[in-house]
Amino acid sequence: MTSDEHGLPSPPATRDVPALTGTPVGTVACPGDDPSEFEFIAPGDKGLRTGEFVAYNATVAGEQEAILARVTNTTQERGLPGEFLANPDVDPDEVAGALGVPTEDTELSRFTARTIGYFDEQISTFTNPRIQPQPGTRLQLAADAYLEAVLPSADWDSGSGTAHLGWLLNRPHGAANIHIPIDKFAATHLAILASTGSGKSYTASVLIEEMMRPASRAAMLVFDPHAEYDTLPEMRRDEHSHVFEGDDGYRPEVEIITPDEITIPIPDLTYSDLLALLDGPSDRMRYVLNEAWRDLTGESNHITPQDIINKCEDVEGERSGTVDALAWRLNKSLNRDLFVPAARDELTDLVAPGQVTVLKLNRLSQSDQQMLAAALLRKLYEAREAATRGEDDAIDHPVFSLFEEGHRFAPDGDARSLGILRRILSEGRKFGFGVGIISQRPSKIDPDVLSQCGTQIIMQIQNPNDQQAIRTSVESAGEDVLDELPGLTPGQAVVAGDAMNTPVLLNVRERHTEHGADSPEATKEWKTAHDRLENEPAGVTDAYDDDGDVDETPL
């Protein structure tokens, strides 16, 4: 592991490092059931576990190459006979002595490993030689520095920003750190999938911290339905300056937009948005509204509900029952603080390099959250499209949007935000618009959306439907890696896809800022509330006083 002047892990500088540790850990026994698998024997005290990386040397096309393999399964090969251990009162050492078995070396394990291949510098990833190791081949642990250098799909010479996610799960703390290339997942999108309490929001915050460091200075927009990212402003504190401050004085900007400050400009809506807001409009209402909306949007960037009603009356030629019905529906839907008449002309207050903007949506209904996302994403996408084509420079830099509770915005069903998200995920790479989807219910996410997320960070998943959704949509993570998902503990993750040359199991690093999404301590809060009620001053009704009259009216 290499570190910077502040003791923080540094990304690798080169791949020109030894691949093997020089310490044998096992011996190849035979080929496996699959052409890319083999079995090997190792002493039980070597501590090998599934997900570990071993390596051996082999000649490929006349060149000596280090072949990397991942351990996928383990079984006991030799130990004390089970029938002699049936009586728990018998000391195993006595059994071993009676059998003449040395107690210092009583276990051997048989492991299955899947060949990954040798690292090919020409294509900057692994090539499987399709050559099985010969029985008797000695295996060694792959070296930490080598794994750091070749597992991520990164060009270490480019100077591009990387995100330090954590370290390999089966190695000591900090021994083999994993830095994933931000450019990869910012371009081809990201999914963070985990059961509740497994650490998905924590991991997302780690990524935000990494993307806001001086080497990247990302332009980020976070859709936050549960107000879980309130602590990100801590990145600007002096005690974190060694992490986030650049040599030029840069510090990340953090904008927290509260529900009271969030608005949806009426001119940014589409005719389909309006229909989704209205309650059961008739065919005639649809026709009148369509004509009115088409005229209005061609005339002005300032539209009030009354403007729409007046234009509907112009279309009808009179104040008809159709107009009255539309007026009632429009006023009910749009005469709220959430909707404003002026179009959003300025976007750089929301997305600017070196700034993360968090939209706190916790007091908005799910349908309003979806409507906000639809209107805002369309505006941003159009701006990026225009900037890429040289037509406008309003947003002349890439944008990355992160969606907490992503199944709300891209459900396997219907939502106003689904269409534009599908478009961004399928076409956004051309225009520098990246998306991150965070969810505890992969089976509830639109399959097209999930399959377009090129990099995946997958944590503990227990639900069989969610496991199947991942298997169906995430092609880059093999069955042997996905089998690990139920057994992961909070803070452990599988990372796979475009940002990795092969999937890995890792421990997510600790955040620099405080975590804002911990579950409430129910028993502690109940006791505090009880004590507060018990100690209320005189004149305040005691919630536990049953001497007074009680309203027994049925609910």
Automatic annotation (TrEMBL):
Record field: compositional bias (Acidic residues): 543-555
Signal peptide location = none
Q: Does the keyword tRNA-binding apply?
A: no
**Region called Disordered, residue ranges:** 1-34, 513-555
Q: Which Pfam families match?
A: DUF87 (PF01935)
Helicase HerA central domain mapped to chain residues: 164-379
The keyword Nucleotide-binding belongs to this UniProt entry's keyword annotation? yes
Which reactions does this protein catalyse? Couples ATP hydrolysis with the unwinding of duplex DNA by translocating in the 3'-5' direction; ATP + H2O = ADP + phosphate + H(+)
Please note every region of biased composition (Basic and acidic residues).
513-535
Q: Per UniProt, which keywords does this protein have?
A: ATP-binding, Nucleotide-binding
MF (Gene Ontology) = 3'-5' DNA helicase activity; 5'-3' DNA helicase activity; ATP binding
What family does this belong to?
Belongs to the HerA family.
In its UniProt entry, what is this protein called?
Answer: ATP-binding protein
